[in-house]
Amino acid sequence: MNTFRRIALLLTLLLAFLPAHAQTTRKKSARKKAVSTKSVKKKKPVRDVKKPPVVEDTDTADTGDVASPEPMVFGDPDAAPPDSDKPAAPPAKPAPTVAKPVAPPPPSAGDPTKPSTRPSLASTPAASTGPVALFSIARASAASAAALKLETELTRHLQRGGDVQFVDLGTAFPPPEPTPLTKADGLFEEGRAAYDNLDPEVAEAKFRSAAEAYEKSPGELRPERLGETFLFLGASRMLNGDTAGAKEAFLRSVVAEPSTRPDKALFGQDVQKAFEEARTEANARPSGTLVVDSQPAGAQVRVRGQDVGVTPLKGISVPAGHHAVVVSSPGYTSFAQYTEVKATGSAEVKATLAPGPGLSAIREASARAGSKEAFESETLPPETGAIAERLDARYLVLAAVSQDKKGRLQAELQVWDVRTQARLRGVEIDLSGKDRKKGPEAAAQQVRDFINGAMSPRFAEETGTGTSLLKRPWFWAVVGGAAAVTAGAVFVATQDKGRPFNPITGGTGF
User: Would the pTM count as exceeding 0.85?
Assistant: First the structure.
């Protein structure tokens, strides 16, 4: 009975101390083997512990890896496996490394050193030497709005530092050629001919129709042509004796294009005087305010053919009157409409931009690349590579928004370095705003650190046919050594009945 208690106490203490001293045991074992090798050159070292069977590395083998909840960086090594004839030495404790955009020196022909199969970011250049493409997808229909908002926030946070180069969508999706306003131009020329022939009634009708045709296409409209059309319309009305109608046309000409001036060779003194009076009145009017927003945000806004900023525009001052507002973004169909801005008043424009055919195809591919199956894939998904090739991007950032069983929205993010096939994964994003450490800004910082080479992985994991922890020789060496120590301790405890075993010193006696 006393022997049984000793054995139980011994096993309990070993199980308590073994995890904490596993690494120390490996180091001591390595030193002993080294000394033994130096002292005895011809004799082979005697191995007390048998090597465990090698686990076959197949695609269907169960590695038993446990996923970590923290973001990790995974690399895709190109090196060959180490020589299996040589005994695997226990690995030394790696020093913390920081990725630097420095290419490793080319291997020498006479260099016997084997390439490492466990690369870190230092051996896989991850510096930002290529553009970044970012897409957020919704895995549920109820998450569409949240996905669009998340994409806007991540883009804004990444662009804030100025050290992240985004894909030029304007180059990838060039705007279509403007549609020629053939009908409107034809009506204008017909009105000019009637005006020159002193036929003011026909001229007024043609210029009025030309102005209506121009305003039907605010996206392709040239403001100077519209201003000129209203100028000729007002002059035609003056010839017909319609002074009030002429003033209204002159005011619209000044609002459409402030630089419009009547040519003294074409118009008489009466037209020039009336036009200047209309200009003075228009300039004396209080300005109004124009508010423009769009989905997605960041679209370019043009008013009267001039760029005034990007959405969201909280409010810009514009002259009172009828204005052509055009909202455009690369890859999307432009939004254009006329908006009436009143003096001292505010007018609001909300533009919803529809993706064009090219961007629609990219969005569909990103939805597949952001699926749960693609996120769990150990190799580069084909859709991810296709998107990067189409946009000429090196890094592809994919954020996926889903909905749990309780209806709460949750998001996760991955980044692929398509060139080296390294990946940042496991980035969780809190969409509620309660945890700032997991918010969109913190996620964007992790993306920045990855693509700029400032993030070092906790460990580098091979993808696809790589080896797991259970397949590493040093892991089984530690397990085998622990088993041998335990067996020896049990043997001592059961054989030596004269003196008790000391678990502190490893010897017998207290």
Answer: no
